[in-house]
Amino acid sequence: MNPLILWFHKLGSPPYFYRFAGRWLPWLYTLALIAGVIGLYGGLVIAPADYQQGDSFRIIYVHVPCAWMSLFVYAFMAANGFIALVWRIKLSETLAMASAPIGAAFTFITLVSGSLWGKPMWGTWWTWDARLTSELVLLFLYFGVIGLYHAIEDTRQAARAAAFLALVGVVNLPIVHYSVVWWNTLHQGSTVSLMGQSKISASMLWPLLTLTFATHVYFFASLLARSRVALLELESGKEWVRALASATEPNHA
Amino acid sequence: MTPTRKRRLIAVALILVAVGIATVLTVLALQQNMTYLFSPSEVLAGHTPGGANFRLGGVVLEHSIKRDSTSLKVDFVVTDRFHDMPVEYTGILPDLFREGQSIVATGKMENGHFVAQQVLAKHDETYMPKEVAEAIAKAKAMKRDVPATPPQG
Q1: B143 lies in a domain?
Q2: CB-based contact (8 Å) between A150 and chain B?
Q3: Looking at the predicted structure, is the pLDDT value of residue A252 above 80?
Q4: Residue B128 domain-assigned?
């Protein structure tokens, strides 16, 4: 078998994943912290003030990376939910359910920072335009997934039910992204685009990209940490968890 | 792929397609109600709900702002560069409110002009340092024959 595929199959086994995540965790957290500090310093101190919004525009460095993460984490959760539903892979269920609270937190920060930005610039904390409303719906979808998961007794059944809800909610992702294109909204269009030119000066863009990298790394670090705990709980009767527990148990001599 | 997995895959895919189609149809049906704002041209063409509150969007016409010297009353003209709409507002305006700025005003029509209860400033997706903005403005001023940017909002 191809070594990469073999590794991927191995990764699906909880004890192997537990060890793999434990090895990577400190590195990922360190990387996220370093990139985050560089990005925040670049955005809040080095980057020049905007010609129109002055220093208020610096909220972009929190708002936009979190907004991208709110969509990215949802897509990640739904993809794992899809694998969990079709192939019934235990690790995918765990990953999908572990990413939901992280995604909800990113969505919440997006809404709060956007609100704080909206007041001085637009003149209002909140308005029911398509972008703001669809992002709020995204938060409720996260809440729905988390709630449904905790409402059902059997963990694996609960994960599959919640994964199904997450999958159905995917229709909201293009709505959030294209809302500013499809409808007349108070929220402006996209500044940074993968294809074509970004409408932000290079001196302002690099901290934004650094922070985007930092939030992605942080997400995976947080995901691995949460999944480790979830796997221990899920497999608590299994041999490898018992071995682990007896190996780390303090000696009551 | 085992038959069970194939069956699950098809079932999940079918449900997703169904949900997707349902969402598209709902969004298309709501298109009328989901209009956040109307441009002056749309208002003059009679697309707005008669007598009810709606949002008017456009650019504040240059040299159209008239402030009342004794109260907070402001008169200005909102334009989409095709048609103009006089607006009357009493209250505090957001910092970004100025001539040439895109705004969204909530209110209703009274005797041919728009009486706003709330005025929000809309900003675009462009971010640049002040020096760059000044350089661009200088370059634009040097060649006046550059066509005006199309209206937005």
Answers
A1: no
A2: no
A3: no
A4: no
